[in-house]
Amino acid sequence: MKMKNNILILTNLLLIMSCQVETVEFYVATDGSDFDTGTIDAPFATINHARNTVRKKIAGGYKGNIIISLRGGVYRLKETLIFGLEDSAPEGHTVRYKAYQDEEPVLTSTELISSWKKLTSFPSELPIVAQGNVWVANIENAKNWQFRTLFDGEKMLSRARSVGFVPTMQCPEPTLAHRWEDLNTLGFPEGTLRNWDNLEDVEIFIRPTHQWLVNYLLLEKVDEQNGIATTSIPGTYRLCKVKNKDWNETCWVENVLGALDEPGEWVLNSKTGKLYYWPESGKPGDNISAPVVRELVLVEGRNVDAVEGDMPVRGIIFDGLIFTGGDRDVWTVEDRGIQHDWDMFDKDNALVRFRGAMDCAVTNCDLRNSGGSGIRVDLYGKDIKITNNKIFNLGGTGVLLCGYGPGNKDV
């Protein structure tokens, strides 16, 4: 009887041990080193290196859960952090990127801007009220870094915007019969638009024809004599007066020195590499920064056009992290709009994006203060949990779920 009891106890112990899921944990800290071992006392410095370490461990046959604990501080990403199929969690397990205890790890793409000088020689276009108040910084490689968002800490600063005006063109009736005609032409009142030297930097912000949407459109040509401008991409609707509304302002010009007339505003001239800023405090602080990318994190599997063949990334969880500081989207001719162009199909314009993913999650996170959207789930997305997050002060959509389209696939 005693032997049977001992065997029963041993069996139960073995069952308990077999039910315990093995977990390994790595640590990342802003004062760590990627030459260290990733322990609590010797943390890694970058999330990239932690991801690569996890990738190697999974490739080596590890079959348990993995936790990457991020200590508090600011992690500046110079490019999108990508998780691919090789980063999938072992089957039935998870890879969790989480905040360490109650600390606040902040993921951002912003790069600090320094070496400000007070502007003493005033461009003719600069309003008199701004003269003596504006500072300027040189932006290296500005042609390839045409950011649309600027921050003071996490506060988004206002880009200079002109007084609004009403387009001079009336839409032909019936509107729907002319839905796809001439979507690039804007008639404007005298003096509202100019053929600026850096026209590629200038955007119009407009309600085109209808009241339920707005477009940001880059300018391609401005004919000042005839009051006609051409945008580089088409608007959602014709660039006409808003129907059935007697509004005085439905179109504005942004990012021109002539509109820099209030504290807190800024203008970027990528042609000269100059960033102009009128600080509210009288002098730029130490935390003025601009974003490098729109998309901070991308979880991307294999997406195919055929009905079968998608391979999703599995089991990646983001828990308790802060995502902030992405840039605003810029439309291109290749973009495909979703429902009045309220967003774009399959576009890299969110802080966190799943594109071919399954059994992943964003939980207990803050997604805030960014020029673009918060979270996107594109194409193949299954069992993605988005729970208990705070999403606010964004320039785009909070959460967008957009698959392949109705009837295309069973995902």
Overview of this structure, please?
The protein has 411 residues and is mainly β. The chain has three domains: 21-109 and 292-402, Single-stranded right-handed beta-helix, Pectin lyase-like (Pectate Lyase C-like), CATH 2.160.20; 111-160 and 258-291, no CATH class; 175-254. Helices cover 8% and strands 33% of the residues. It has helices at 2-19, 47-59, and strands at 23-28, 65-70, 73-76, 81-83, 95-99, 105-108, 110-112, 117-118, 135-138, 151-152, 155-156, 158-159, 185-187, 203-206, 215-223, 228-231, 251-254, 265-269, 274-277, 288-291, 297-300, 313-314, 316-319, 322-324, 337-338, 343-344, 350-358, 361-363, 366-370, 373-382, 385-387, 390-394, 399-402. A six-stranded parallel β-sheet has the order 1-2-5-23-28-31, with helices on one face. Strands 4, 21, 22, 27, 30 and 33 form a six-stranded parallel β-sheet that branches. A hairpin with an 8-residue loop joins strand 14 (203-206) and strand 15. Mean pLDDT is 92; it is low at 7-19.
The main β sheet shows up as: 6 strands, parallel
- Segments where pLDDT lies below 50 for 5+ residues? 7-19
Number of helices: 2
CATH architecture of the largest domain: 3 Solenoid
User: Could you tell me how far the N terminus lies from the C terminus, measured between alpha carbons in angstroms?
Assistant: 57 Å
Strand tally? 33
